[in-house]
TrEMBL record, chain A:
Protein name in UniProt: Alpha-1,3-glucosyltransferase
Membrane topology per record: Multi-pass membrane protein
Gene: ALG8
Family, per entry: Belongs to the ALG6/ALG8 glucosyltransferase family.
One Gene Ontology molecular-function label: dolichyl pyrophosphate Glc1Man9GlcNAc2 alpha-1,3-glucosyltransferase activity
Transmembrane segments: 152-168, 198-224, 244-269, 345-365, 371-390, 438-459, 471-491, 497-518
InterPro entries per record: Glyco_trans_ALG6/ALG8
Amino acid sequence: MCGLSAGARNGGRRLELELVPRPGARRLLPQVPPHPHVTFCSHSTDFEVHRNWLAITHNLPLSQWYYEATSEWTLDYPPFFAWFEYALSHIAKYFDPKMLVIENLNYTSPATIFFQRFSVIFTDLLFIYAVRECCRCVNGKRAAKDILEKPTFILAVLLMWNFGLLIVDHIHFQYNGFLFGLMLLSVARLCQKRYLEGALLFAVLLHFKHIYVYVAPAYGIYLLRSYCFTASNADGSAKWRSFSFLRITLLGLIVCLVSALSLGPFIVLGQLPQVISRLFPFKRGLCHAYWAPNFWALYSAVDKALTVIGLKYNFLDPTKIPKASMTGGLVQEFQHTVLPSVTPLATLICTFISILPSVFCLWFKPQGPRGFLQCLVLCALSSFMFGWHVHEKAILLAILPLSLLSVQRAKDAGIYLILTTTGHFSLFPLLFTAPELPIKILLMLLFSVYSFSSLKSLYRREKPLLNWLETIYLIHLVPLEIFCEIVFPLTPWKLRFPFVPLLLTSVYCAVGIMYAWLKLYISVLSERTSARQKAE
Amino acid sequence: MEKWSLMTITVLLALTVRWTVSLGSYSGAGKPPMYGDYEAQRHWQEVTYNLPIRQWYFNTSDNNLLYWGLDYPPLTAYHSFLCAYVAKLINPDWIALHTSRGYESQSHKLFMRTTVFVADLLIYIPAVILYCCSLKETSTKKKVSSALCILLYPGLILIDHGHFQYNSVSLGFALWGVLCLSYDWDLLGSAAFCLALNYKQMELYHSLPFFCYLLGKCFKKGLKGKGLLLLIKLAGTVVASFAVCWLPFCTDVEQIMQVLRRLFPIDRGLFEDKVANIWCSLSVLIKIKNVVSPQTQLKLSFAVTFLSLLPTCIKLTVQPSLRGFKLTLVSCALSFFLFSFQVHEKSILLVSVPVCLIINEVPFMATWFLLVSTFSMLPLLLKDGLLLPYAVTTLAFLSACVASFAIFEKTSAKDLQLKPFSQSLRGYVSWFKLFPKIVRSLFLLSVTLMGVLSVMSAAVHPPQRFPDLFPVSVSSISCLHFLFFLVYFNVIILWDSKNSRNQKKVS
């Protein structure tokens, strides 16, 4: 349905989008339980989270939004998102008023499911619009005759059929579609040199979901460097004279106004500390229940391996080891046994240090929108690698903007293929019931086959996108999946070590994502020197 | 992009749609005491696994034929037996004799859905892909888009993966038959078609075109030489494949007779429920079932069916061509559907699949027909709670067809293969200039009508005086469409020869 309206609205680009298989059509399907008897597809806790927020914002006054705690899923998104839920709740009451009762925990009537699922599909319209705007920014130098080989078409499919976004939003249940829509739209506006609009959109986005603060450095520096400085020196450094106070005031004004609109009421009520404490829950532990495939997953895995080895050769005293770390393996509060335990401050410092080079790059040799996008992806990836309590879904923050780069340069396309394949694979544990197994495998194959073959045909004349090592690494995801989902549950270890499949998935994917991150970093940094040499 | 990756994407897309539809409801879910086709299939597994073959088709103390007795040919029974074997390995409760009646659970549903999915993947989908690859004089893109449209055809998906049946098996075998015939592997083709026939007796709808085409081919080769040899070979193949399928039942004539009685239950009446065929639609005006005796009904329907089949079959026998064969498959199946005895609403699938085969030749008409055929099953789908899958798959199918064939630009007489017909009429009728526009607006009108009726039957309560208002109007409107299509297909078949001769002259 979304696809239909996109096709109708797009006029000139109509054919292109129409050939894109409509996501809406399929997105609607997995959640069709017309009969309570056959409510088949599971919905995650996030479904209940959002139902609860609908109820909270609908029934309570503003002053209690961030205090209400009947459900364990308290409101922990910024105020704009709460307002969004408030608006939705006024439509929801026409579907099933019972879902708006705060005490109705885990309430799932067919009408509730229909409404919630449909609200995600409907808000996806913004995402589709943003994709269209992004496609306009991609320069069509390679104007292929065949529509299937046009970069804009490929980009549209890569974004709209993004496996991660599809399963996280439409099966697992979240509202990432329109949030990423806002982000892509702001990127598109920056590419079109409509800086103020882009800044406004991003500021609004930040107050919808604060996870986007990870990429804020890229926005800040880019706006400062390319918008506030109106001219550059010949060697690419900023011309200090050209600094425009008017422009920075405008930017500041936008940010302040948006923040005032969002946080103002809570400041007046004196609830800012409470809001902040809800938004940044540092009590939650280094890793999420399932380790996101980042640096800390590798760190924890090494720690675990060392513990096992230590116990075997009697280097460690078994009585001193915290029990949880050996049995559960994936508990929330994770104590490392051999390696030093990690504090939130340490992760913050690591994140900061890892972001720094990319930001410097953006400042010292701005390459226009391309450089900005590279910096954006690097920021997202770095914070994914080193952040505190990172969710596996956060990888989408890097994958989606990287799609824009992948259709413009072969080198980025190679990195994109590694990152998406491993990143999407790491989302597999999100869907764990048997009926969802075929869906996730089919959708993943669909996206992977498309991304590989389309990018390969786009860069037909250049050298292969992946070298042999990368190819072998990616191919081995197949046996890994077969082992984790089919072989392992049949073995007797299933009961004793239930965490092994998750551990394997997370560690294996962490290697790939780490590699993609390093490769992208190296390519960005080395590009600088070569560009500088050329300039000299 | 390369052909194989496009085809892979098409297949994956088709599989995804199939699986997502299968997550929905099925026929008779949670509706004791009879449940629906889902329970029928499960019951057959139970019966075939637990009883000796001799008792499968007989009413015994362990096999109550009134409760979903087996009424399909042996291959269906073997298939059930095979599935039951797997079921036994997973959970013996699913097929326990007597106690498993009406068994429903999430894991059982998953199992049943998987059996359909696997059957579809192994038989129907490869046939479609190979068929599309074998299309001559078409670009890669056209081949892929034909495959996409055929695989996304909502009717078959909704009935097999939603309502719950194994039509893709018999239709898949029939497709393999067509495929083999198009490569001139006549023996293999007829063997494949025999398998289809032994899976579902409804495949008889397709048997005449197969017969006429092969017979015509024998005639063409000369009945005294090669033709006779081919005829003997074909007859041998058919007899042999039937014998293999029926081997366990050949012990006793009574066995065979009982199976046949089960397969052709002539006492069940002219039609059931609300079928979009001529008898059901006529009974809105005249209650045929009450006016005419059952024996006369049988004779009447037979006579009308036979008469409507005759012209195209004769034509095919006299001038056997692959194109004519496909078209005759359509028109014969449609005649059977409209006029024959004891037709189900699902039998329209037997017409739809041949129509799928000509989707790249007459995309506009094929799309239109496929939409109508899905719409004609709406009352059934509503009963099963498949409204949402129906709406979404239909819209997806329509947009896939519009995008890949640009159907709205292909409405001229030439695109509809009506050129010879219009030439023969020239002089009498002068409105042919307006023809494309008229056809297009008819299509839009019909699509709007179908949309409105779909929405109304889903959302509006019928007036108390006419509780069946919507099902009846759905079936009558579909029936009118089908009559129109029957005329259309007959016209293009019968006027085909001039066209091909002209083409030959040109070349």
